[in-house]
Write a structure and sequence with these properties.
The structure is a single chain. This protein is mainly β. Among the domains are: 8-54 and 480-574, Sandwich (Jelly Rolls); 139-239, no CATH class. Helices cover 2% and strands 51% of the residues. It has two helices and 50 strands. The strands form twelve sheets. Strands 1, 4, 5, 6, 46, 47, 48, 49 and 50 form a nine-stranded antiparallel sheet that branches. The mean pLDDT is 94.
Length: 577
């Protein structure tokens, strides 16, 4: 018999770090679980000293239609809960708009005004009135003579069909030429001479095809030579212009402008608004991201740049970035630069605690350098890839940041990347991970003041309902099925049989109830004992003989905390083949 026979080996399972679904059998995994559900580290309440049951959910409201968006708008000291469900938009329980598209919506708040897009509409809400965004009306030409010419001032606004021209009257000319022809025949221009508004068919006539306004009495020359004294506002409706913005499904606020993308008609283009004005999108403020048609999947601001994450393509031009640059002729511009990253964005991306992250075909990637150096990516999800990549709805995931975790939400499952702890995998560091499961399919999320809101879809027979929940740590009502398993532990001697010391298992825990299971080799878990109102140390008496590996499982439907567990075993003889 070997000299190690009879040796007492003590295993201490503590300082838990998260899950590892990769099925690796190494000593590092003594801190991780190959199979755990609904356990995590709560840094707010427990300071990360233990793992514990996740919060339960508490119902807030219920709807008959899909919830496409939940947002919060703080205005005049009051919080407005904006809910997009079906074709309706509500402020709390008050209907404020009834023709929404049945598509996921995006929103932002700028200068105290709430803006929302749904891929069809672009709406604004000030706490009282909700309606289509009324675009800024640009003055496209100034110092124009009645016959034309002048100086170009502002670009056409994609969002607005209206434009202004200002002229210098000469006292004799009656026909004034606009800077565009084939204008809108159903909307008469607004004409002012020396600030006084004139009336159609009384003071002037209008030829929409020629783009001319004919005065019955010639406007006078200005009192100040060369000063514009005639203003004509006209309409040139071009639905294809407005659609460039309305059809966008992505948006990101960056450098006091709003950037748009995700237009299915122009999938590799992005647009942006003018400085400090979400209602003005110049017809020249757009960028083509690469020559291929691979669609833009996400817009993410961070590292002093706007990152444009495109789907994988054969051209390998997938990640672009835009840095604000001042041009002597055009002012601030955002030229498109191709990064050195060829890995494409399969789903979506996010700025997670100042790190640009996105999901590729291989899992979570992080851009590890900024725009001043050659960009590279670092993989961040090796510990959960074997499960995560096989999710049926991997392409339709949602990302949310909450309590220092990056939540990757797929169906009824949430994978949590921990920003506070890292795992060394090969030659780089990755996030530690936890894993949640819910009974409900999660369709949308929002975080407000540290509270996570979950919008769900629930089907019971032929009835489908849509609900909004928050998470709760109420000990009296929490009812979450959760468990944590240790690795299949060979105690450092894979070639020997082992025997547990029946008095050598001690568990440091805290909970209303906790069941301890043990599994020897592949024989299935056996219940050792169920403990009620366990606080501090409990002693499960585990009697297992002649095993190669052993695994513990801590399980409960009531909230519990797990600090550590110690298991002693004796090394026996060689395993027989």
């Amino acid at each position: 018999m070997s000299q190690v026979s009879g040796k007492l080996v003590t295993r201490n399972y503590s300082q838990f770090r998260g899950v590892d679904f990769s099925n690796r059998m190494d000593e590092v995994n003594i801190y991780r679980s190959p199979d755990a559900v609904n356990m995590w580290k709560n840094y707010k309440d427990s300071n990360g000293k233990c793992i514990e049951t996740r919060p339960d959910i508490e119902l807030l409201s219920e709807y008959s239609d899909t919830i496409f968006g939940l947002f919060f708008y703080d205005y005049n000291g009051e919080t407005h809960k904006i809910i997009h469900t079906g074709t309706k938009l509500y402020d709390n329980n008050t209907l404020i708009y009834s023709s929404m598209a049945e598509h996921e919506s995006k929103a932002f708040i700028y200068a105290g005004i709430f803006y929302i897009k749904d891929g069809t509409h672009y709406l604004t809400y000030n706490g009282t009135t909700c309606g289509e965004v009324v675009g800024y009306i640009p003055t496209t030409t100034i110092s124009r003579s009645p016959a034309g010419g002048g100086t170009k001032l502002e670009d056409v606004n994609l969002i607005s069909p209206y434009r202004k021209n200002t002229f210098v009257g000469d006292g004799t000319s009656t026909v004034y030429y606009l800077d565009s022809q084939n204008t809108d025949q159903f909307e008469y221009p607004i004409v002012k001479v020396n600030g006084e508004e004139k009336s159609y068919n009384i003071d002037f006539s209008y030829d929409y095809e020629a783009g001319t306004v004919t005065f019955y009495t010639a406007p006078p020359a200005p009192d100040t030579v060369g000063q514009d004294n005639v203003e004509i506002q006209y309409c040139k409706y071009m639905p294809e212009y407005r659609d460039e913005i309305l059809k966008c499904t992505l948006l990101e606020v960056f450098d006091n402008r709003v950037f748009f993308g995700g237009n299915p008609d122009n999938p590799n283009y992005i647009w942006h608004t003018s400085l400090d004005d979400p209602t003005y999108c110049s017809d020249l403020d757009y960028y083509q991201e690469g020559m291929d048609d691979a669609p833009v999947k996400a817009l993410v601001a961070g590292n002093n740049a706007l990152w444009v994450l495109k789907a994988p393509s054969q051209a390998n031009t997938t990640i672009f970035y835009h840095i604000p640059t001042v041009d002597s002729d055009y002012g601030k511009i955002y030229p498109s630069s191709h990064s050195s990253i060829s890995t494409g964005c399969k789903t979506t991306g996010i700025n997670f605690r100042d790190t640009i992250c996105f999901y590729s075909e291989n899992g979570l990637e992080a851009i590890t350098s900024d725009v001043t150096t050659e960009q590279a990516i670092s993989h961040k999800s090796s510990l959960v890839d074997s499960k995560l990549l096989n999710e049926e709805n991997y392409d339709n995931m949602r990302l949310e940041e909450w309590e220092g975790y990056l939540l990757t939400i797929i169906g009824n499952k949430i994978y949590l990347a921990n920003s506070k702890e890292y795992a060394q995998i090969s030659d780089h560091y990755e996030y530690e991970w936890y894993y949640f499961e819910f009974k409900q399919e999660i369709t949308s999320t929002r975080v407000k003041d540290g509270v996570l809101y979950l919008c769900t879809k629930e089907t019971n027979g032929d009835t489908t309902t849509y609900k909004i929940y928050t998470l709760t740590n109420n000990e009296d009502t929490r009812n979450v099925e959760a468990y944590w398993t240790t690795l299949e532990d060979e105690f450092g001697y894979p070639q020997y049989q082992k025997i547990t010391n029946k008095k050598g298992c001690v568990v440091d825990t805290d909970g209303k109830e906790i069941s301890v299971y043990a599994k020897a080799d592949n024989k299935g878990f056996d219940l050792i004992k169920k403990f009620i109102n366990a606080k501090g140390y409990i002693v499960p008496r585990i009697k297992k003989k002649k095993w190669k590996s052993i695994q513990l499982k801590f399980y409960s439907k009531k909230p519990f905390k797990l600090y550590s567990s110690t298991l002693e075993s004796y090394v026996g003889s060689y395993i027989k083949r």
